[in-house]
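MOLECULE: protein
FOLLOWS: sequence and fold
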Amino acid sequence: MNTISPETVMPFIPKKRSRLGILIDIRKNKLLYVMLCPVLLYYVIFHYGPMYGAIIAFKDFSPRLGIWGSDWVGFEHFQAFFTGPYFWRTIKNTILISFYQLLFGFPAPIVLALLLNEVRHALFKRTVQTITYMPHFISLVVICGIIKDFTVSDGVMNDIIVFFGGERTTFLLEPSFFRSVYVTSGVWQHIGWGTIIFLAALTGIDQEQYEAAKIDGAGRWKQMTNVTLPGLMPTIIILLILEVGRMMNIGFEKIILLYNPGTYETADVISSYVYRVGLQDFNYSFSSAVGLFNSVINFILLICSNWLSRKFNDTSLW
């Protein structure tokens, strides 16, 4: 999305006129704004409203006293986390898993979308799309069950390894394999769903550009590198900014379904640590402090990535 200032588009319209224009637009499209209200209410009630609960990160929260009745402790919980034995382990695991997901998981749907775009056989194309979409709609619990069945010592993965002369191993009991299993299964689960946005963006590329490229003698590869990829680039950059913005936000569900105390060394991330401390040990204030720290890091990453993109590529979220 190219950032274009309002002055560039309407340099002759004063600010009062612009505000009046908004009111006129609301009056003309009041039904659309009415339809927008439930969405706004959803975010206010379920996303912005609960934010006040983050206050307990600075308190010694007691359910008996409530949020406002509990004693203030300042940054005590943050200091306990920063100096605790699990700080560097959770930070390291979160960064590494997020980085591997960004490195392998982000470009995978782009590559698949480019390949599907080159397929001319409609039936084959639809079949591939359906097969790759399906894992996204399967319950995460079922997905993790499939992963466990495939990676046990007598599972399909080990049968393939033995066929090529390797030795059997139980992947999810080995700390060194956990990140690979997590990232690889994530790519398999979401690659088809991720291609939807890129395939939609491909339909918006002007077909005259392809005709012009053909006239200039460009083959399929040249058309892809000189027309398709530049046409996709704004979408890729926007999605990359969003991906970096939630880089530290690895969901705890899949982690706790796959890990075990023997793999904590490489599998325990911030969200799973928050889950254990908050819901299993009932230390709500400490887990809120850790979660708030994680959210602040995500916010900083989003701001920095958006700023860098706007500075070097003239494409940004705002």
In short: The longest strand covers residues 59-60.
